[in-house]
Records
---
Amino acid sequence: MTERAPSLLDLDGVGPARVQALARLGVDDLRDLLLLLPRALESTGARVAIGDLADHVGASVRVVGTVARRSFRRFGKRSQLTVRVTDDTGSVDLVYYNQSWQRERFADDQEVEVWGRPQRSQRGLVFLSPRVGTDDSPLPPAGGWRSLYPQTDGLGAELVRKLVAQALRDHGATLDEPLPADFLDEHGMLPLDEVPAALLEPRDPTHFTRARRRALFSDLAAAHARAAERSRAGRGGGARRCAVDDDELARVEALFPFEWTGAQRRVVGELRADLASDRPMRRLLQGDVGSGKTAVGVCAALVAAAAGGQTAFLAPTELLAEQHAESLAPIFAAAGRRVALLTGSTPSRDRRRVLREVKSGAVDLLVGTHALFHPDVVFRDLALVTIDEQHRFGVAQREKLLDKRAAAHLLLMTATPIPRTLAHTLYGELEVSLLDERPPGRGPRTTRWLRDRDAERLPEFLAERLDAGDRVYWVSPRIGDEEARGAEQAFERWSSSDLARHGVELVHGRLDAAERAKRLARFRDGDARVLVATTVIEVGVDVPSATVMVVEDADRLGLAQLHQLRGRVGRGAAPSWCLFFGKPAAAERLELLEQCDDGFALAEADLARRGMGELGGLRQSGESAGFEDDLDLVVAARDLFARNPEVVAALARAGGGPRAPRNTLHVP
């Protein structure tokens, strides 16, 4: 009997649910886990005296002291634990909100080591939710460096770190380096077999950066190899010719209840020409938030349907897939065509029916999430693959859909703009189209970073807008639990406020599809005029009467994600406002958002500010060590492929490198 290859399920504490959670981080196997890019690198902190903390506000530091006093109080469902720690030079308070279990960790006269970032407050310097070392759970050594890993619903950052450490211990010897040593040295990269340990526990930022560059390079090289394979396949033709005459195209465009912009008509013309060829279309459609990309993509799907072909339409979240299916069904029905939805939450009975109808050709447009990758999804005649928000998917995921039919036309759409010249560098095998017009009739949109006394005036402003009949989004990056402030806690605050009379709904990723749809419908219909949500509403939610968005903890989100969220307001003729709460550490990007409302201008500024981010088909969100450093990797991958394609092909067969997390990557 052939021995089974090790898998994620061999890790302690990992079952099917956690495998799914890891998949949300782009981790599909042990190799992905070993090469998962941390979201940040932090100093483990030098030890300082409590009396010297004023010189280290905001820095990662350690103090050792004795517990002098403890206090705990509740206010409603919330709580606050305050622990005073002293040494010979002074005292400092440790403050924990909604973490009642922390009371058991402290005793009077106990000596503790505290690690965190001191902050100024009305009571003086405090540590907010610091880590505390004990004999049973000591802190990592002071004066070193520690990687912080991404997290997702049901999978905390510390657990991800433990899983990476276990994978390294048990399976770290499985990585072989196909690249020559002199090439690695020339480009500042560690050998692949040293990368997982250096990502997990780097000696210093340089060691970490060398590991990160090698991990990124795997994906870049694999992208070049796959691009070459697709290009060769495309030259051989084999795509369905989806040609329509002018009258048919006019009928398709007339199905949409708006006037097309000049940019939309231009791009539709480009797609029409591509689809009429037997050479597979490979096109990247860039458009700012609200520019009408989805309508253009759907128009292409209707053209394919008119020629007898089917379209697979991939969305990054169930919420967006559900909304696409709901909004597109009437348009397709008017054309005598059918739309179906397939997600991970589709009930088994409905799933079997959808699969039968797709295979028979009864469904013209299949909208879905990662569920479309499953081998059971078989099309009768797949003509077009459209990937919405393509920056949320990796190269390997794109390939899974093209495996349904290698010669299918491919349209990638993104609202995370990158400069055109850079797009051609990264996506050399793609033609690039640009939507650079906003639809007419959109009102002005104001963006503000709330600071000083702005927060005190916010309730009055929100009451004024709600009384006027407008609708409000309140967004928190986290769902929330006993330990963390999040959307659930914000919903409780709203529900107990005077403004609750306007109706408040809560939406996040843990809700089942039916309940989520019901709550969104109440908000869309005006039965509830406040929607408290996580970033699950980042894309696809279209409520023109929503004029205000408030984002708390905006410093936890990247520039592109904040711009995406901002795109949920300003979709009607009335003025709108996007208001951010964020720490001063995020001042640069929050001020940039205040000054600029154009996604392409933001992309140029962000590129100059933080470098390339994630490359080679990865999500464009990470913060890099610098533009020049990452661009040289793109060029190096291209040149290596030109000189030595068999080495690059080996990288492609190995599955490339990590699908990096969406979180901002910070290298000090």
---
Amino acid sequence: MITADTHSADGVSGGARRLIPLEDFFRNSERTAYQISPDGTHISYMAPYENRMNLFVQRVGAAEALRLTSETERSVAGYMWADDRRLLFMKDCGGDENYRLFGVNLDGSDLRAYTDFPGVRTGIIDDLEEVPGYVMIAMNKRNPEVFDPYRLNLDTGELTLLAENPGNYQGWMTDHEGRLRAVTAIVDGVNTQILYRDSEEEPFRPVLTTNFKDEVNFLEFTPDNKNVYAATNLGRDKVELVLMDPSTCTELEQLYAHPRYDVASISYSRKRKKLLGVFCTGHKEPVRHYFDDEARRRRERLESHFPGRRFGIADTDKSETKLLVYVGGDRTRGAYYFYDETTDRVEKIADLAPWIREDDMVEMHPVTYTTRDGWTIEAYLSLPHGLTPATARHLPVVVNPHGGPWARDTWGYSSEVQFLCNRGYAVFQMNFRGSTGYGRKFLEASYKQWGRAMQDDITDGVEWLKARCIADARRIAIYGGSYGGYAALAGVTFTPDLYACAVDYVGVSNLFTFMQTIPPYWKPMLEMMYEQVGDPEKDKEMMAACSPALHADRIKVPLLVAQGANDPRVNKDESDQMVAALRSRGVEVEYIVKDNEGHGFHNQENRYDFYRAMERFLKKYL
């Protein structure tokens, strides 16, 4: 194990750095996921117990906390306050993502399972704040492929089926009184439909049918429950915020649009019954637009407490005067603060990782480059300590494309990035075409482009690094998880001379078998996936050409492959067949399989094993 000491950095001319123990980067946070009770009297959080993240609660201002859960097999996956006295939490089994719902009182009493059904996945639709003692959930208990809405009585555990999903409903929406008013559905395989009703006594009726490429997303009802604030790209490239009549999906007013970015989220005050603001994810700084002067003034007051820092409101009590504020950045996991708006008082609650020294961490530099066909790609370059993009020369580089693929990288702290930079590598992340938040054209430019134009965007980024002499052309690795794992395999398959080695973490290797092993609740979306990724019949030649496992003979560099045995999204066979194909040719492959994991390693000891293996692998081949 590497100990904290000072050594010369591999690939860094004349530099020195403090080697930080691997475990410091990947150990569980000391405390995280803070929330405040609706009445503002208690604070909850997640913290390690027996190396698993468990649920704790303490009274505001008190020094001692009470542990509410004692999970030792699997960390609590997430939680919420149901009311002033009871919390709900989720957990799955071995990474199968079939989340079960449990509840416990804030004094630790009455711990019970609400949806402890094998093979059934539970999700929260509405906390039903205005209906004490109840929450609304969705489960695929009746049919594994579809989710039905239920009202759950938290005292008795009684489940009441509210509507039976006919097979194509994908999402439910409630109004401010907790009534089911709208639903999204898939029709004809690739078309999406919004169905609506004025009251729960009426049947749902279709009000808008569009191709799935058109987005109309109801975000929140207006205070009178008549209209909705909606995010839409209908008739436009970027997703904009509009006021919409849900009974016809007629746009009543354009509220906000950004020339470069999609609308990402809104802020709504339940107490004041008012839309406060709208937000976009920018290259570095978030884009904020306020509709409410009071919300803007609150932001300004908080800025005076955290000058020059990145922060956001993590939670509020029902009165919206007691706030939990998360303060972070690119060189810290962050900290939580308690803010009392009535007194303008700020109190630090906890650092997520107090053992991480900000001065030891490195900056994440936002950069851009242009692809061969003219797209501007927003990317992030992180460098070993003491270097800048202007001074970095001939470094070993880890190229790190994100998963999804319809997701995106953002500016901020990354344990992986900091770990790799501390070991002397530059890390390069890019929002290749298909990354979300950049508009319809950029998204659709990725369809049926796995291993093709999407991969070209990654390759063009590598060439950009080489042209600026930042990268040592002989020492470039590619590493990613999920789709990023696919991109790593595609990189060493289709550009075999570009990379010195690759790390594939729960990645797709064969587009045909990937389509055959998706979770049952993805099957209603299969026709859409055929348009996005490829149709196994109509696009057979393309999919075969873009499946790395079918072209393993092109790979000539070493690989490290990691896989969870219970992965419901990327079946273990994706890794098995890739490893078998390479080993049959004598290509060196290290293969890590964890029997108690799914799509990514969540248990701390498994993370340690993976990153230790990655450290050895990169040191040997990069």
